[in-house]
Amino acid sequence: MNKSRKPYQLVSKEWQADDTILEVNGSHIGGSNFTLIAGPCAVENREQLGAIANYLSKKGVHFLRGGAFKPRTSPYSFQGLKEEGLKLLREVGDRNKLNIVTEVMGTETIDLVAEYADVLQVGTRNMQNYPLLKGLGKIDKPILLKRGMSCTVEEWLLAAEYIMVGGNPRVILCERGIRTFNKATRNTMDLGSMALVKTLTHLPVFADPSQGTGIRELVLPMTKAAIAAGADGAIVEVHNQPEEALSDGDQSLYFDQFDRLISACESYCQLEGKQFQISNPTSKTIQQN
Amino acid sequence: MNKSRKPYQLVSKEWQADDTILEVNGSHIGGSNFTLIAGPCAVENREQLGAIANYLSKKGVHFLRGGAFKPRTSPYSFQGLKEEGLKLLREVGDRNKLNIVTEVMGTETIDLVAEYADVLQVGTRNMQNYPLLKGLGKIDKPILLKRGMSCTVEEWLLAAEYIMVGGNPRVILCERGIRTFNKATRNTMDLGSMALVKTLTHLPVFADPSQGTGIRELVLPMTKAAIAAGADGAIVEVHNQPEEALSDGDQSLYFDQFDRLISACESYCQLEGKQFQISNPTSKTIQQN
Amino acid sequence: MNKSRKPYQLVSKEWQADDTILEVNGSHIGGSNFTLIAGPCAVENREQLGAIANYLSKKGVHFLRGGAFKPRTSPYSFQGLKEEGLKLLREVGDRNKLNIVTEVMGTETIDLVAEYADVLQVGTRNMQNYPLLKGLGKIDKPILLKRGMSCTVEEWLLAAEYIMVGGNPRVILCERGIRTFNKATRNTMDLGSMALVKTLTHLPVFADPSQGTGIRELVLPMTKAAIAAGADGAIVEVHNQPEEALSDGDQSLYFDQFDRLISACESYCQLEGKQFQISNPTSKTIQQN
Amino acid sequence: MNKSRKPYQLVSKEWQADDTILEVNGSHIGGSNFTLIAGPCAVENREQLGAIANYLSKKGVHFLRGGAFKPRTSPYSFQGLKEEGLKLLREVGDRNKLNIVTEVMGTETIDLVAEYADVLQVGTRNMQNYPLLKGLGKIDKPILLKRGMSCTVEEWLLAAEYIMVGGNPRVILCERGIRTFNKATRNTMDLGSMALVKTLTHLPVFADPSQGTGIRELVLPMTKAAIAAGADGAIVEVHNQPEEALSDGDQSLYFDQFDRLISACESYCQLEGKQFQISNPTSKTIQQN
Description:
Four copies of one chain form a homotetramer.
Chain A: E1 22-24, E2 27-29, E3 33-39, H1 46-59, E4 63-65, H2 83-95, E5 99-103, H3 110-116, E6 119-122, H4 130-136, E7 143-146, H5 153-165, E8 171-175, H6 191-200, E9 205-207, H7 209-213, H8 216-228, E10 233-237, H9 255-272, E11 275-277, H10 283-288
Parallel strand pairs in A: 3-4, 3-10, 3-11, 4-5, 5-6, 6-7, 7-8, 8-9, 9-10
Antiparallel strand pairs in A: 1-2
Helix pairs in contact in A: 1-2, 4-5, 8-9
């Protein structure tokens, strides 16, 4: 650690001045790009996932999210479709030309998840699961590392450092809200720390306004706020039937809300000088806004 | 409380559907307007205040902030110039055609502060100072009510309700960051709650990115984020010599940083369809952005 | 501040090595004494207060608490009986030989409250109400200073320093729970910080297990824990009819629960070598325990 | 979940009214017993561990703690001796007739750790590592489940439920401090929630005053406070040379401090009617106290 007195090294701007830009099947993450990852909280069945993927594909989105292994507070809650869910993600993703982003919960399933996914997500409860981070340092797929809900900025960067020092430089950080006394929103979205992290690291930094607020109506303003504060991307929950969702229905967007979100992303990216990674930008929307 | 089951009434959208728009000497706050309040943390002396006010006036800003009565954690810290500071604010404000926003710390100084100020600010430590809120309900000047650093959204709205039920309907809410485990920023700016409050009340809602982050470099991104999330205004600390400031120098902008902030506010207000309350908008800046 | 590099001085053990011991009408607070303050959350009427005071007096308690000026979150909630409540406290206190502890909410009522009370309480929302602290520095009655719900240990000690530097050395600190993400209890009682403060100051430090937990059943274990952690006293809510209380009924003890609390205090004080300030200790209880 | 409307079942008092009492090689945990687990933060080498174990054995302690797999915030920090550490723990434990308590960090090491340990500890960062909890549901050794630093009481009980529903009923809960705005202590020890949990579950509930405070001098008062609040045991860090410790030296007790801790535990257990699980109680100490 000769380059800085900070406790982390590989993740720092002192180590690497240029922004890390990840390329995933032709789509770019980081640098001057803005990337949207969207989809349901959990993979529920072929019909649900197909409907959502088809919609997202038409909209030009490049990344489909969906949980196959779900970390649930209660052992009695739906735990995800597991490998069947991964297969559905792959099948539906391939059909709709969508990259797959899905959560890996433990070392025992890294290989399995990596077989199906394009980007592996580490959930907030696992940000300091060090065997998992070490395991992910050995694979060659990008890792979306959610901030632990009570983790400091330094702990977050050191978690990324674990992955990088293990050999995998392709890490995306994702602020998803922290746990505070405030219960009016599900979590307290900490865009100030996100903006701070952007000054400290060359890695791409995303925001998760769905988990960050837990309230469907706040996803649009907080996605715009995230872009304004410097986010390189956002991960957003969308569902064909939010009121029927097996989990997190209250924070999942309806399709028409997602339409407006895409439109807003276009305008905000233009203002921020970001390339919105989307296949069919509707330039008309930009002028209208 | 017959109109809703919420614990507050007068502040709610159910009670008044239209946004409250305050008029202060020809400048407008709330509704489709975006208003910038700027100035030093504390009034230090005539030269300092004059230099800052002159700069802000040239930039077209309408509101000058500056503390004359300062709530300081330590009794050994500079406590403000008190009445002398109020007089300086008025003198400098009048000379530069700037409205004065300054803090009132207790019932015993309400009349004094109201004599000099155009908008009276209630600080975060006083949000639940109920005698003060009741006293402010009896005056006819607008109140800028900062959110208590550990107060819920409901408590915040009820503090405004105290002022309104007392007879003063001119209340501006201001999110200034909450206190959490996170110490990478001075406070945790809670834009999610700010966006939520916008859905609950007709009152104008401001953001304070200076107190919210405590870091000069984050004031610009978080001001932009606040506009994107729906803020009706921002209160920003700026100083002619931040490194010499008697308090909060680290979060005070240099003039050239404030130049860029104004430019960004113009662009973001345009995108959000907001009227930026500034005297000489630089439309060139907008196109360049 | 030549004696230490800490930001506070008069409150520190470096300034005064011996514990401050306050004498209130023959009862002692601080040093090797343990003092119980008990009574209802709010003064409701003569019958209620008389019944509670009569019970406490028989039990040998020396201090009666009860709010006449109540800081309520909502302007529509019962705000206390105000001066009428103070008169009732004095009348009932005198009749039962109980010292009166009651809250003062602002500078405008300091003289009034000081006329009737033996100890003036500063509530959690006012811990950083500096005009109030300065005003209390000028009177000659003890001040019970509750910790602000989101205040650090240093801020708490500096609030006491405000009172002491103003001229009033008779300050009692009181930990009453802090605001955290945890909502299973009303507040999170921070006995670790209380124990820490005992190592930093010569002032008496109390605990408030009623506000600290908000749950009647936890008042006994947390009062015992407070003594074990070094508390010099406790302030406990007790009511003749908790289920009818106008405020905080859920955390108010029934008389028979308070009986057991006194008994436990006796045992724990004996173990800790503390003199329990109570008129008629029941030594039998100690042996039975 | 037919027995209650609470989200957990097997851990609840409604499901099992009698306290769970675990037997570990003749020592008892839970019910009317109080059990002390002590040792260094990390196993460093044979000399260190031997010296500490020899001391604890002489004092009559039954359980030796020590980390072989260490979850460290930085990848550059000492990560523990791993299997070599486990072997040392077993060797030293057998020689000194001490049961071994050590942390398991992932599913891939459950069998390995279970081969050497008598009680497997789940650290605060893994409380919601569900694959790990499920894996521990399948072994037949007791699990010491630390509360997650930002986890609610309900989430904590549900984590225990994961282990129990998986088939392992031998779970010990351990409060170790939560993460709050307060940084005067390392964590905020939440004895109020610990006392609350005792009313909800039949499982033994421990306290960790070392992690809970991070300050050596506060370990004694907070251990006493934990017993007073109903703890069934405590896990305490002790080191032969705290100032040389590879981790957590500031919160590790010196031997003479631990002597006083044992003495205090004896007195407090006697007062609470608890059987202190220690081989050679020094009744003299009790009378002296």
